[in-house]
């Protein structure tokens, strides 16, 4: 005995399946695009960190600096450290709780560039037990973009109390009263081993799981399609008696 198709039920199941397939499929496509972006980033960064250093951008180029175009460019600059205005920025690290030491470097044209000289263990940093450089010096390192936005659960900087948790160059230079400061900072390259600060700690390896994520989303889309096919088949068999 044949039965009629239960249209309300079938319509609801169809809508749910369509939303699931479209949603999971879109997420899979997005991860494929992210994979392409990540591979391009890895290739771009690798080529920059092994290139010959170029002069750090001056004021005429500051407005045109972007993350995609300039970050991790190997640069060189010369000037004098203003050690009295150094800033300690808390960070967890492979040596335990530590501080980045960011020191303003004043170039010959009077402009300021913040230089991340490296890590110092928290206790040593609090006691000022690390090397400082006086007089003219040349710095080579990687250009980095200001960390103006924090990560999830990250603490906000507290300039009034001198507590810093991210390398937000705009707020740091403003707190120090520098009006003519570069919007970027420079991660100094590795210095003599066994001395603090320990430079050359820029993270240049990037986690790349986008392919596995894409396959997961596409697999879920196929599972939804398969489940919908089973429901449709059962409904057709039921109507056929």
Characterize this entry briefly:
By secondary structure, the protein is α+β, with helices and mostly antiparallel strands.
Provide structural commentary.
The structure is a single chain. With 241 residues, the protein is of the alpha+beta class. The protein has a 5-stranded mixed β-barrel with strand order 2-4-5-7-6. Helix 1 packs antiparallel against helix 5. The chain is elongated. The termini are close together. The model has no long low-confidence stretch (mean pLDDT 86).
State the share of residues found in helices, binned by percent.
25-40%
Mean pLDDT: 86
Number of helices: 5
Largest sheet, in brief, is: 5 strands, mixed, barrel
- In total, the number of strands is 7
What labels describe this entry?
241 residues; elongated; 7 strands; five-stranded mixed β-barrel; alpha+beta
SSE layout and pairing:
Blueprint: H1 7-49, E1 54-55, H2 67-70, E2 74-81, E3 87-91, E4 98-107, E5 112-121, H3 122-126, E6 136-145, H4 169-175, E7 181-188, H5 210-239
Parallel strand pairs: 1-2, 5-7
Antiparallel strand pairs: 2-4, 2-6, 3-4, 4-5, 6-7
